[in-house]
Amino acid sequence: MKKNIAVYAGTFDPITNGHLDIIERASSVFETLYVTIFVNLKKQGLLTIDERVALIKEATKQFDNVVVDYSSKLAVEYAKDVNANVLVRGIRATMDFEYELQMAFANQYLEKDIEMVFFMARQTHIFISSSTVKEIVSHGRSVKDLVPECVELALYEKYEKKEIADEYF
């Protein structure tokens, strides 16, 4: 019998409450969920891989079946390495759908045995992206409702916005 293992791939720079919602829902469907940071050469990261791993581990510690990892491989190659048969993706809007559809077809081309499972973002999370969160914090505004507390504090420190942390904690 094949194990029910999935990989949720992303840059998670930083992880947001939208990501956490997908993780919570996917972890209830799959026996094991690998939340895996993948290096995206098109994106310059704010947080290091080690910082992202630590923050994701902290934010997902309540999920017993979530494994946090990172990889520079293609997602389908990584999935095969961990015996996963599913790649999990979140979709916020039609722009995401077009991109994810293209990626799904590319993944099918590369590995026919890997399935793509899409989770629609909840309405309250549709506008949340890592880029939006970083932009808001860089201008000295609170992201309290957009990211886990550990991420919020890390971002304030990264952007040297300690006055925001003092105001909200």
Q: Estimate the mean pLDDT confidence.
A: 91
CATH class: Alpha Beta
Which structural class is indicated by helix and strand composition? Answer: alpha/beta
Tally of DSSP β-strands: 5
Report the span from N to C terminus.
49 Å
Rounded to an integer in angstroms, the radius of gyration calculated over CA atoms is: 16 Å
State the share of residues found in helices, binned by percent: 40-55%
Give the number of domains: 1
Strand order of the biggest β-sheet: 3-2-1-4-5
CATH architecture title: 3-Layer(aba) Sandwich
In terms of quaternary structure, what is this?
single chain
Please describe what this structure looks like.
The protein is of the alpha/beta class. The protein has helices at residues 17-27, 49-59, 75-81, 94-110, 130-138, 149-158, 162-168, and strands at 5-10, 32-38, 66-71, 86-91, 115-120. The chain has a five-stranded parallel beta sheet, with helices on both faces. Strand 1, helix 1 (17-27) and strand 2 form a beta-alpha-beta unit. The protein is globular and about 45 Å long.
